[in-house]
Please model this.
Amino acid sequence: MPGERARAAGLSQVFAVAEFRALWGAELISVAGDQLARVALSVLVYGRTGSAAWAAVVYALTFLPALLGGVLLGGLADRHRRRELMIVVDLLRAVLVGAMAVPGMPLWALCTLLVVVVLLASPHGAAQAALLPAVLPEGDAYERGMAVRQITNQAVQLLAFTMGGALLLVLSPAAALGLNAVSFVASAVILRKGVAARDTPRDDVARSSGRAPATEILRDGARAIRMVLSDPRRRSLLCLVWLVGFYVVPEGLAAPYATSLGGGPAAIGLLMAADPAGSVLGAFLFTRLVPAERRPRLIGWLAVAAGLPLAACVLSPNLPVSILLWALTGAFATAYLVQAQASFVRATPDAQRGRAVGVAASGLVAAQGLAVLLGGLLAERWSPTTAVAVCGAAGVVASAVAGYAWWQAGQERRTAADAGALECG
Model:
């Protein structure tokens, strides 16, 4: 059967599309450079100041500006040609990161440049996410492409974090930042050579000068929020995506959790690797084994299942069992996240995807940060195992509510479709 042959082709079928290979390769190079830069910045700042607080602040700056950038700048992906926007952003980031590598750069200037670099990542990511459905329009190729991106990004991040420290034994932090700058240039070249030029997605903008005033950009952000929240399907999917925040809490508590079990640095590393390892396996198996037509129906169930292993940590399991439980959460959470993100993008018209993706990405960053903060406070009050368990249980309850809302939205849509078919008949 055709469906069986498609599944047999596995995830590798997306690599037959040259444009996907270019988008995937450019992203992979950038992700590896970014992760190396995060390690390098922590070493650089701590070595210069001797302050763990300053090192933590600079590390946080590699994430937090995305909260603002996604809402305010995601709309640029709907106002400009997406490939060209990605190339310009890559080149700008190469220049800024190159400036950060200059020896003796004042700390305030380093932080300022870093904020701008992270802000620029938002329109780049929105443009890429909006472009991907056009590159993979056939069947479930888009979902497979999302799964491939998730698997490889997790693998590269895990590898970069584990090898980044070793690499910095032979490279200076400035040289590592220089490599990150080169990665952005390489990404821009790959995009220019491998991705076809497309027109601006919004006709009204295409006929204008292409330059959006600052007030219009702010309005774009507000419109995007209203647009997403007014649609029951996208609203429920957005909630499910953001609820992943509950399931990343263990990563933030890996050190105190391992200590509570009597483990040392090796135990911390194994616990932190559990989620990415489970994520790779979960995304692969879900996309490889579950038929495309069934995947959207499983989003809510998988979201609930993702919290159950963490809730079991209330029993204070030993290290091997804890690693297994965290890996299971990573597998279930990534499986539902890949499909929820894909369904969200598919439910959004092409001309609105940049803004919608920007809102979703900003909320995801905020949810992860707030959940980790909550987990830390709970761990201080009770214990790390209890904190992980509470966050897992909270994820189960919240996912059940959001999953029901997603199911109900699907039922209402099917009812409306059936009514329309009867009228036409």
